[in-house]
DNA sequence: GGATCCTTCTTCTTCTTC
């Protein structure tokens, strides 16, 4: 590559390295795919130039040495500044690797005949010890990068909409999410309305959620055996709680399901930020909670769109779930013992 | 009745060219 750049330069053509690489690759491919007879050298009078070729090829000492090339580089580009390599720390491991699964519970392959979905209301009565929630823990343990981008986004939005405008915008986003969840509760509770054969009649829903319901209709076709809806789960040992959106079978697999609304498309799981951690946290809590007799090791994040565009359904299989569970345990550790690194977050632009 | 809780969302470089 290095030499090629020079050759191109010496030929009087300044070509950026990346471009010259492409040229190089192209020429190699071209040479390999083209018949030899088309070689531009085939018409060269080799007899005439044989002495020149011999003299070049027989030269024992190249005019260019690594040292001369280095000196030339230093003159043209300046001294090499080596980038600071990121420190290769060992990946963090939770201090206590608490299990996601409950060894006393079997993984069900078939569903027992059950009544309506479980729905355990949150009960934070007076005198009960405070138990932090999944949302609170995730919010308070955001990485410096996450905090930075969120804060920057907020500043930009306020600059555009004003304080009051931004407040109204945020409230509207929350309202859409809440309305969508309310509609889903109705759909999932009255199972007959969406079981196979019965198409969802979106016009039955309030206009503001019709698009979202349309968006998830293809996902609902694969949802069966709803076991829990908007139900509180609390981890018996790790002492945190949350409210799980839904537990049901998706394509035959028992899952913790999280329904989301989004303005932006989220075609990849990585677009959902901490959502996978959220469902891992719920799954672990449910698996240890005595109010539930089964356990879940898979998850599903469904991102619905207001304009009715088909929702993205991101499956989190058991293997992925156990990875997210470990990360969740780290966030839980950070929540209980905040680390000083969080204070080193860069400040957003003004 | 009022206060609080959980959840509802929000982030990922940026520009040019075709």
From TrEMBL:
<dbReference type="InterPro" id="IPR011335">
    <property type="entry name" value="Restrct_endonuc-II-like"/>
</dbReference>
<dbReference type="Pfam" id="PF12705">
    <property type="entry name" value="PDDEXK_1"/>
</dbReference>
<dbReference type="InterPro" id="IPR038726">
    <property type="entry name" value="PDDEXK_AddAB-type"/>
</dbReference>
<comment type="similarity">
    <text>Belongs to the MGME1 family.</text>
</comment>
<dbReference type="GO" id="GO:0008297">
    <property type="term" value="F:single-stranded DNA exodeoxyribonuclease activity"/>
</dbReference>
<keyword id="KW-0234">DNA repair</keyword>
<feature type="active site">
    <location>
        <position position="260"/>
    </location>
</feature>
<keyword id="KW-0378">Hydrolase</keyword>
<feature type="domain" description="PD-(D/E)XK endonuclease-like">
    <location>
        <begin position="153"/>
        <end position="315"/>
    </location>
</feature>
<dbReference type="GO" id="GO:0043504">
    <property type="term" value="P:mitochondrial DNA repair"/>
</dbReference>
<dbReference type="GO" id="GO:0005739">
    <property type="term" value="C:mitochondrion"/>
</dbReference>
<keyword id="KW-0269">Exonuclease</keyword>
<keyword id="KW-0540">Nuclease</keyword>
<protein>
    <recommendedName>
        <fullName>Mitochondrial genome maintenance exonuclease 1</fullName>
        <ecNumber>3.1.-.-</ecNumber>
    </recommendedName>
</protein>
<keyword id="KW-0227">DNA damage</keyword>
<feature type="active site">
    <location>
        <position position="258"/>
    </location>
</feature>
<dbReference type="GO" id="GO:0006264">
    <property type="term" value="P:mitochondrial DNA replication"/>
</dbReference>
<keyword id="KW-0496">Mitochondrion</keyword>
<feature type="active site">
    <location>
        <position position="245"/>
    </location>
</feature>
<dbReference type="InterPro" id="IPR011604">
    <property type="entry name" value="PDDEXK-like_dom_sf"/>
</dbReference>
<comment type="function">
    <text>Metal-dependent single-stranded DNA (ssDNA) exonuclease involved in mitochondrial genome maintenance. Has preference for 5'-3' exonuclease activity. Necessary for maintenance of proper 7S DNA levels. Probably involved in mitochondrial DNA (mtDNA) repair.</text>
</comment>
